[in-house]
Structure formats: C-alpha cells, structure tokens
Amino acid sequence: MRAHLRRFRSTYSFAALALATAGMVAAGTTTANAAGYLYDVSGNTAPGGSFSGSSPHPMFRNGTSANLLSCATGTFSGSMPNVSNSTGVIGTFSGYTFSQCTMPSGATATVTATVRPAPLTVTGGAEISGKLPAGTLSVRIESPTCSYTLAQTTVLNWSINHGNGFQLMGTLTPQDVKGSCNLVPPILFAHGGSFQPTVTSHPA
Predict the structure, then answer these.
(1) Hey, where are the domains in the chain?
(2) Distances (CA, A) of 180 to 113, 166, 186
(3) Alpha carbon distance 77, 166 (integer Å)
(4) Is the confidence at residue 16, as pLDDT, over 70?
(5) Computed from CA positions of residues 158, 164, 165, 166, in that sequence, does the dihedral angle turn out positive or negative?
C-alpha cells in the first residue's frame, strides 16, 4: 500500500508548538495497532541500528516570547533498527547534546542533557508521531551568573515527517534555580533534524 508521509518542517511555528503542548521494536508481528496502521523502518546501515541527527538552533523559549538560550547545534540519538510491519514501537530515544550555547546576555553557558532511554511508540496512525513520557529529558544550564535545570514534567511530543525528519516539542519546568535567571515558565522547547533511517506507515 502507498506509504503515508508528511513533509518535514525545519522551522517551528510558535502557535503550532503551543497547540502541541495543550515495549521495544515489535519485529515479526503483523497485527495492526489500534489505529489500523503498520510501520516500516528502512535504510539504517549503522551498527546496531543506531541513529543520530542534528540541526542548528534548538528552541528554548522563555514564557511566551523571549529566547532563553541560544545553542549553535543540538544533536539527538537513539536506536532504530530496520524492521517491517511494526505495530507501533519503532525504536528508542536515548541521547541529546547541545553545543556552543550562550545566555541572552552573551555569556557562555554549559548545557548538559540527561536522557532516560524511552521507546519511540507510534500512536498517530498514518501520522508517524507519539509521546515521550515525563522524566525522559532533563537539561542542566550553567553560566557565571545563572544556573538551573529544565525538567520534563509532562510528555514531549515527537513526530517523523517526510520519512526521516525527526521533530520534538513540548514544555520544560525550571528547577534548582540559582542566580539571576529571569525565568518565566513554562519553558517551550522545540528541535528537529534529519537522520538516516526512513520510516513509513501503511494500512494493515
């Protein structure tokens, strides 16, 4: 059957982000998920089915307007082995790094992400999308005048568009704040980029 693909967008709509925030790979089975779709992962030539993708300027937005943090690059990673007719779980999300980050003042910031590995389970039917559970991602920011942790206390929404464009978005909650940080919760986070595997959906 014809695969259902959605076009990957490399830029983020703030309105769309606000709206979006309001097991392991099931190889060998052909029972459709509740939405009646199956999922194929192809083209991954990396050892063990690993994947990574990066793109510039992940978005950390303070409250409703100001950029909280500027990073030259964000890189996400995990595993996504080739598989046919998965009923929903297509891989695992397990890593994030941020490089060359600065505060609004221009001061250099050290940004360290901690990821608790979580399955990428498709729940969107023909649309290849799902949610990472609360507690999957934590981001620590430290600068000379301000330090804090951005904790994921609710789900983060993820999607794969155009077959190999990964996008993640949601809200993060400031914790363990020290110094003059001028934080206005919630902190809106969005990032995405292309990776090697191609993921498609098809009716069962």
Answers:
(1) 55-196
(2) 21, 34, 17
(3) 10
(4) no
(5) positive
Alpha-carbon gap, residue 162 to 140, rounded angstroms: 32
pTM of the model: 0.82
Average pLDDT over residues 150-170: 95
Question: DSSP secondary structure string, 161-201?
Answer: ETTTEEEEEEEEEEEEEEES----SSEEEEEEEE-S-EEEE
Would you state the pLDDT for residue 66? 80
* C-alpha to C-alpha distance for 183 and 21, rounded to whole angstroms: 19
What is the C-alpha to C-alpha distance for residues 187 and 62, in angstroms, rounded to an integer? 5
d(CA 59, CA 68): 8
For the cut 70, the answer to whether the pLDDT of residue 175 exceeds it is yes
Q: Is 63 helix (H, G, I), strand (E, B) or coil?
A: coil
Q: Give me 18's structure tokens.
A: 């606000």
Is the separation of the CB atoms in 136 and 168 below 8 Å? Answer: no
Predicted local distance difference test score (pLDDT) of residue 3: 38
Tokens linked to 190: 């969005």
Q: Locate the DSSP E strands across the chain.
A: 37-42, 50-56, 59-62, 66-79, 83-86, 89-102, 108-115, 118-121, 129-132, 137-142, 146-151, 156-161, 165-179, 187-194, 198-203
CB atoms within 10 A of CB 165: 21
pLDDT in tens, 125-150: 999 999 999 999 999 999 999 999 99
